[in-house]
Amino acid sequence: MNYKYHMPTKVFSGKNCIVANSDVFKTFGSKAMLVTGRSSAKKNGSQHDVITALEQQGIDYVVFDKVMANPTIECAYEGAEFAKANQVYFIVAIGGGSPMDAAKAMALLAKQDIQPEDLFNGQYAEDVLPIIAVPTTAGTGSEVTQYSILTNNLLETKTSIAADILFPKVAFVDAKYMSGLPVTTTINTAVDALSHSVEGMLSIRSSLVSDALAKESIRYFVKAAPAMCDAVGSGDVSLLDETVRQDLMQCAMLAGMVIAQTGTTAVHAMGYSLTYFKDIDHGRANGLLLAEYMAVVQESEPQLVAEILAALGMSELSEFKALLSKLLGEVEVLTKDDVVKFSAKAVAAPAIKGNCKVKPTEDEVNAMFMQAFNLAF
Amino acid sequence: MNYKYHMPTKVFSGKNCIVANSDVFKTFGSKAMLVTGRSSAKKNGSQHDVITALEQQGIDYVVFDKVMANPTIECAYEGAEFAKANQVYFIVAIGGGSPMDAAKAMALLAKQDIQPEDLFNGQYAEDVLPIIAVPTTAGTGSEVTQYSILTNNLLETKTSIAADILFPKVAFVDAKYMSGLPVTTTINTAVDALSHSVEGMLSIRSSLVSDALAKESIRYFVKAAPAMCDAVGSGDVSLLDETVRQDLMQCAMLAGMVIAQTGTTAVHAMGYSLTYFKDIDHGRANGLLLAEYMAVVQESEPQLVAEILAALGMSELSEFKALLSKLLGEVEVLTKDDVVKFSAKAVAAPAIKGNCKVKPTEDEVNAMFMQAFNLAF
Which residue of B1, B19, B207 is the best one to mutate when testing the A interface, meaning the one whose CB has the most A CBs within 10 A? Predict the structure, then answer.
């Protein structure tokens, strides 16, 4: 019963919740900066809804739409300068994990002078621009976390800024912005969310609160799984209908609430190399490794895996492996040299060193990569 | 999927969590006011632990230990004056619902000039003394809610101040302070917590998040139920051991997180009269009415009740009724005049008017009271 729980973000969920609650924006000041990627927020209607809400409330705004996938530290500094130059009072982050995570770093850097080499040291003052988050994918859960994950070219991996001041003040969770999201992106992000919930249950920081949220999150993934399997088979995005989108959005938000408490574990630590060096999508990278790590956990803590399988409505890990395989398809080509390099990086990562109930050895990490990518031992 | 979720309190749970996290107090200033009842916080060790933590951090403090059960508006004003006179920076509320709820009103009134007639109008500025909550009973969940419930002699009932600024900044949840709590108090408060979770699921403001927390809370009640039944039969408080206390503390905190989202429903609306006019303990009052209200709900929304029964691990409402009856024993004597008066008050209460998925009519409220108190129709 030893745990800490904290998730201060105010969540508004539901169709058209942004415009219906436009008065919320008013409490943060008279000028906003929208932070988003190049185009998707314009296409999916989210940017339009935010602007409608801001205009309804007579709030001025500027747009920073230069966030790339897997945003860099440089991007965060550039956005922070833009925020300062435009004297904005708050940030509205619109998009998937990349714009939300970049926006959090911008919110911090706009108010505090922090050198790049100190950015991940965990020592920050209280000052930050308030953040309002509008997720348009169902994966990261960044709308309800204190994490900003940036690509760190110095360390050749992704690195997290984790600070309570980075929790968005408000999250608007509306699945309608996902309606045009391609099948592959939908699946990759959904698998990321699933990985958050499963890893949350495998974290030493898990608690009865995070576990309750994780199991609920997993149940929403399971509810959406048949439609995702059909869609990946046929390539027909229309199979991912409004109900599926809503289920996935809730799955991802609940999973975000989980990792806000627990952090991630071996799966994310290993997955980051796949993304950094092999350009494998983040959620997909986790999905390729998730069942492998569960198999390692099962050896010493079978009841933990049984609890996760129960939430999945499954009795065998092989069923789960089959589901992930169906969703993710053919795996990428990895060399043994890749594996050795990635394993060494992973075992040094805090998510393995400090956060796993079952801490894999370097040999086990090696074996998980080999297994996941069908390499001979 | 239309809902709002917000629970910003930072929760520390676990044995000795106050002293282990004494640095948390430091962030709120150099002088505190402890708000508590006459004696229990001194006996159960909670006041001692808070003082130890404050002294470790060099924080000065004053003690206001005059909060009575079912605290009055006058008590809240008196404590606020005491806080102002002593120029404290924050409040540490220690005890059951009464000290915590009174402390919240004091925190508000110490910073804002509000006349008694405006105290419940919902219009407050942002200023409030920060509140740290230390529950010593497992019932109210006030440590994680935005409610301050005071006895309102003008309206002859209990009335809530509900404001986001009243969420405690921090809650320290340590079941060890409950170790000496008498069997009857333990059961009454536990039944209050159960009522919060069940009513949360019956509220129009329920959501997937609050339902997940409610079901988990109910499961903890069920886990503790056999020991409570044994203790009530034998009167042996030692049957309520550390594990039972922990389970009940978690049950109550989760249930608090639920009503922070959902509010309460017909059960609380009806129960307040039993407490105000008949001096029946608050939790007991809810427990006497809970199964009756579930029976009313079952008529039009059987699946809702089935979901609650599933969380209880039961298949029939009669099983639940039998459990409550075993825990609560012989009922008090009520007259038909009482029933008529209480029913009229209940149907006018916001918890019935605005918050029930199944809104009972005055006749149904009448019938529930009659049934609960074995009165002939």
Answer: B1
Distance from CA of A34 to the nearest CA of B (A): 23
Asked if B4 lies within 8 A of A13 by C-beta distance, the reply is: yes
Q: Do B207 and A5 touch (CB under 8 A)?
A: no
CB atoms within 10 A of CB B23: 10
Cβ(A43)–Cβ(A136) under 8 Å?
A: no
Q: Which residues of B touch A261 (CB under 8 A)?
A: none
Question: What chain A residue is nearest to B213 in terms of C-alpha separation?
Answer: A212
| B4 contacts on A by Cβ (under 8 Å) | 10-13
Give the pairing type, strands A157-162 and A147-152. antiparallel
Whether the predicted interface score ipTM is above 0.85:
yes
Query: Do residues B276 and B349 lie in contact, with contact meaning Cβ atoms separated by under 8 Å?
Result: no
Give backbone dihedrals phi and psi of B312, rounded to 5 degrees, phi first: -80, -10
Distance (Å) of CA A262 to CA A146, A214, A376, B130:
11, 11, 34, 26
Across A180-193, average pLDDT: 97
Distance between CA atoms of residues B167 and B179, nearest Å? 26
- H or E element at residue A192: helix A183-201
- When pLDDT is cut at 50, 70 and 90, the band that residue B87 belongs to is very high
Residue range B156-171: mean pLDDT, rounded: 94
- Quote the pLDDT of residue A157: 85
**Residue A64 main-chain phi, psi, to 5 deg:** -115, 100
Q: Is the pLDDT of residue A377 over 80?
A: no
Contact between B212 and A216 using a beta-carbon 8 Å cutoff: yes
* Partners of residue B208 in chain A, C-beta under 8 Å: 216, 220, 250, 254
Question: Tokens standing for A91?
Answer: 């940030």
User: What pLDDT digit, counting tens, does each position of B258-267 carry?
Assistant: 999 999 999 9
A269 class by beta-carbon count within 10 Å (0-12 exposed, 13-18 middle, 19+ buried) = buried
Note the pLDDT of residue A92. 98
Q: What is the distance between the alpha carbons of residues B118 and A263, in angstroms, rounded to a whole number?
A: 44
Residue A137 Cα, gap to closest chain B Cα (Å): 16
Percent of chain A with pLDDT over 70: 100
Rg, Å, chain A Cα set: 20
Rounded to the nearest angstrom, the minimum Cα separation between B16 and chain A is 10
Tell me the mean pLDDT in the region A327-336: 96
Q: What are phi and psi of B260, to 5 degrees?
A: -60, -30
Contact at CB, A246 and B1, closer than 8 angstroms: yes
pLDDT of residue B154: 85
What is residue B153's predicted lDDT score, i.e. its pLDDT?
87
Question: pLDDT category, B376, cuts 50, 70, 90?
Answer: confident
Give strand pairing partners of A4: B12
What is the biggest distance separating any 2 CA atoms in chain A, rounded to whole angstroms?
A: 64
Residue A212 forms beta bridges with which residues?
none
| Interface list for chain A against chain B, based on CB atoms closer than 8 Å | 1-15, 17, 175, 207-209, 212-213, 215-216, 220, 246, 249-250, 254, 257
Tell me the sheet residues that pair with A60: A31
Q: What is the mean pLDDT of residues B292-317?
A: 98
Round the average pLDDT of chain A to a whole number and report it: 96
pLDDT tens string A104-156: 999 999 999 999 999 999 999 999 999 999 999 999 999 999 999 999 888 88
Which domains can be identified in chain A, with CATH numbers?
A: 10-177 (3.40.50.1970), 182-372 (1.20.1090.10)
The string of DSSP codes covering B168-228 is -SEEEE-GGGGTT--HHHHHHHHHHHHHHHHHHHTBTT--HHHHHHHHHHHHHHHHHHHHH
Contact between chains at A175 and B1 (C-beta distance less than 8 A): yes
